[in-house]
Amino acid sequence: MEIHLLTPADRDWVRRKIIETWGAETVVVHQTVYHPAELPGFIAEAEGEIAGLLTYHLEGEACEIVTLDTWRTGLGVGTALIETVKQAAGREKCRRLWLVTTNDNLPALRFYQKRGFVIAAVHVNSIEKDRRLKPEIPLTGMDGIPIRDEIELEMML
Ligand SMILES: CC(C)(COP(=O)(O)OP(=O)(O)OC[C@H]1O[C@@H](n2cnc3c(N)ncnc32)[C@H](O)[C@@H]1OP(=O)(O)O)[C@@H](O)C(=O)NCCC(=O)NCCS
Fold it and tell me: What is the distance in A from the centroid of ligand 1 to the CA of 108?
């Protein structure tokens, strides 16, 4: 597997992929609108094909993972991207690596907690506010679970 930094040449592809995966070119988390195609990030390639994408946002001493998607699950792509962003955040002197996921995303909650992240906050019913900024956020998510809360996970570096 190879991981490389997102470059300006990747931006159009990232935009298309985010629309395909998240329903619009924006991602809204904790009432903040992000344009992942404009953010720094990493692409993972496996056997010549794009297998994963992670974008992040730096603010002060914190690094927020804004999106993480893998298209070949269970191969270690997600883990490798987390390791890569952890190193990048360390180089930027960040003290906190964090992200927000939704209450329905049980695979993500499992994935992150097994990789050292801990739940830092639960923002009850906060998706209602996000939906005002991005009406494309579905009402129902994984396994038919209503999408309602944002769960903040963090790792101190
Ligand atoms: C959550 C997500 C990012 C995980 O990515 P992934 O590439 O499947 O992650 P990994 O392959 O590193 O790890 C997944 C599992 O596969 C296992 N695995 C890792 N390498 C493996 C290998 N070479 N062979 C078999 N299994 C392997 C891991 O042990 C892990 O299982 P565990 O959680 O029991 O430890 C991915 O499922 C995804 O894109 N989900 C949809 C989008 C999303 O929800 N994103 C996160 C919210 S922001």
Answer: 8
Domain range annotation of the chain: 2-156
Structure pTM? 0.95
Residue pLDDT, tens place only, 39-79: 999 999 998 899 999 999 999 999 999 999 999 888 999 99
Q: How many helices (H) and strands (E) does the chain have?
A: 4, 9
The tens digit of pLDDT for each residue in 112-143 reads 999 999 999 999 999 999 999 999 999 999 99
The H or E element spanning position 155 is: strand 150-156
**Residues contacting ligand 1 via CB (< 6 Å):** 68-70, 73-79, 99, 101, 105, 107-108, 110-111, 114
Distance CA 119, CA 77 (A): 22
Going from the Cα of 71 to the center of ligand 1, the distance in angstroms, rounded, reads 10
Pair of tokens at residue 82: 């987390």
Report whether CATH 3.40.50.300 matches the domain 2-156. no
